[in-house]
Amino acid sequence: MKRIFLLFAIALLAFQAQAQDRTLMGRNGRVGFFVSPYIEQGPLNQPWRTSLGGGVGLILGNAFLGVYGAAGADYEQVLNDNELDRIDLAHGGLWLGFTPMQHWVFHPYGTVKLGGGVVNIDTNGWNDYVDNVLVVSPEVGVEMNLTRFLRLAGTAGYRWVDGVSSPGLTDGDFTGWTGTITLRLGYFGRDKRGCK
Fold first, then answer.
1. pTM for the whole structure
2. Please, are residues 87 and 66 in contact by the beta-carbon 8 Å criterion?
3. Whose CA, among 16, 18, 48, 116, lies 20 to 30 Å from 187?
4. CA neighbor of 112 nearest in space, from 159, 76, 152
5. What's the domain range around 85?
6. Beta bridge mates, 48
7. How many domains does the chain have?
8. DSSP 134-153
9. What tens digit of pLDDT does each residue of 44-79 get?
10. CATH of the domain at 111
11. Low-confidence ranges of the chain (pLDDT < 50)
């Protein structure tokens, strides 16, 4: 598994583009940094719950390397008058991405989020549960260059969660298909090899 992630990271960094990016408002280059809030819909003890996240990254040609953090909660348990008050998932870690053909206004966008986190289960009594988990989330989609400093991506992905052992819950309650909207704000720089 480590070899696959290492090969993926090397492949992301190997692709370098030379053309400037086309945007709705002008042109842009290739090397820089970004900050990124995102919203994700995915399984969290129910088929579709919302998680909020964000990250920062360093752009290297068509690839980026960064860190992320995300959290989401299922509050429906409170409304159903169950023994459980709240179930939440919080995780963060390494964020690898690949965005080929950035010179197009609309271009492919793919990422892998790999990190650790916790599943926290609050109960009505004193028995609250916390499980340490591993989270892997690959996703692919389309990104749009809105301006020189702003990009918007829509992706579909799959989130694997491993390590849930609390009573009544399994890894499958947090594992499944996801949909994500990501906003990347930053300086996407210039590829000096493409500048004459």
1. 0.78
2. no
3. 116
4. 159
5. 2-194
6. none
7. 1
8. EEEEEEEEEEEEEETTEEEE
9. 877 788 999 999 999 988 899 999 999 998 766 544
10. 2.40.160.20
11. 12-20, 25-29, 78-79, 191, 193-196
